[in-house]
Amino acid sequence: MSRDGEQVIFIVENDKMHFRNRKLLQTLTVAVLLAYTILLVYQSFSTGVISHENIELHPNDEKIKSFRQRLQRHLSRDQLGDSDHLQNLENPATISPNLSPGEVTQVTMRPFTTSLNDLFISVKTTKHFHKERLPIILKTWFQLAKDVTWFFTDTNDEEFHKMTNGHMINTNCSSSHSRKALCCKMSVEFDTFIETDKKWFCHFDDDNYVNIPRLVDFLSDYNPREDWYLGKPSIQAPLEIINKDKSSQKVKFWFATGGAGFCLSKALALKMMPVASGGKFISTGEKIRLPDDVTMGYIIEHLLKKPLTVVDQFHSHLEPMKFIRRDMLKDQISFSYSKNKEEWNVVKIEGFDAKYDTNRFLSLHCFLFPETRFCPR
Ligand code: UDP
Ligand code: MN
User: Fold this and answer.
1) Nearest ligand 1 atom, CA 259
2) 3-class state of residue 76 by DSSP
3) Which of 242, 274, 284, 360 ranks highest by number of CB atoms within 10 Å?
4) 157 lines ligand 1 (CB under 6 A)
5) What Å distances lie between residue 177 and 127, 153, 182, CA to CA?
6) Would you say residue 291 has pLDDT above 90?
7) Which residue owns the Cα nearest ligand 1 atom 24?
8) What is the largest CA-CA distance in the chain?
9) CA distance linking residue 208 with residue 145, whole number of Å
10) How far apart are the first and last CA of the chain?
11) What is the CA(103)–ligand 1 centre distance, in A?
12) Which domains does the chain have, with CATH numbers?
């Protein structure tokens, strides 16, 4: 073979090698790409699983904590069996073999709400205040709780009987501001509640505005089968009185101001019956010679040894209403108003002219529920 022929063969052989190398390189690239894609898919999948476990099962997770608190409040022990399940939720490692993570998720999802129909709302009023104080209530918050709100008064008033759809109750108590008359009304409010199948008793004065959805939402965090006395004191320290029965012993207790409103769970109200039902609320009030709300505190805190749970969202006119921040109004449960000499203590909110809406309840109502028919749009 000539030298030229050798050279041709060499060039052809060289080309063949280049071609094989390129093929090998291409195959390798495809393989690497494929492996990388599989890795990516796997990673994203496994991350999802881990974050899911974090949400549902991590012991320090806020969700678990708040769920546990809610569950403790809502479920009485007999419903839950025992507290082991709660322990298990805190420490998922100890979840018993027959309680799979799926079941835990099911429990955390369980809705536990109180509805408006579980409430009994009583408003203390008197014949002198019907025309002055009731119309604004009837126009505003009563509309959101018509069926569960009752007015406890001291006369038969046909006009308001109609306007409230028969929800005026004549207590036949005296129409004075005396301690006895006020305890008499509270006594009838209490007895009327006991006769219902409602889970919560909430008392208000006729100068209160009640943020109904907020109240319902708030109560749904508490179990009415447990003893709950929810309200706000108006004094800085517990009240101290002398118990004349027991060799002038000092008695200290907190009470929720009636003018801010307060709520009692059914369980607690039932326990109060021996000292509060069938008119006994009046004799207990007479014994300590103090007003209705103080008597309530005496019975619950001192006689039954059940503590008041302070709820800051209840407001009486003993506090300056203007200090409730506008962006906090929605979270509050009750408001009030008063006039001291020429000065009004009212919620600070824009809206209707003060001439037409002196106590600011109309404006407050439109702020909270702007869809209301009479509210400007
Ligand atoms: N009240 C009553 N009989 C009276 C005076 C007042 O039942 O003779 C009621 C009134 O309707 C209100 C509560 O007691 O629900 C408190 O009355 P008010 O706001 O006039 O006085 P406060 O105690 O708040 O200063
Ligand atoms: Mn008042």
Assistant:
1) 24
2) coil
3) 360
4) no
5) 12, 12, 7
6) yes
7) 259
8) 138
9) 14
10) 104
11) 53
12) 55-109 (no CATH), 117-310 (3.90.550.50), 321-368 (no CATH)
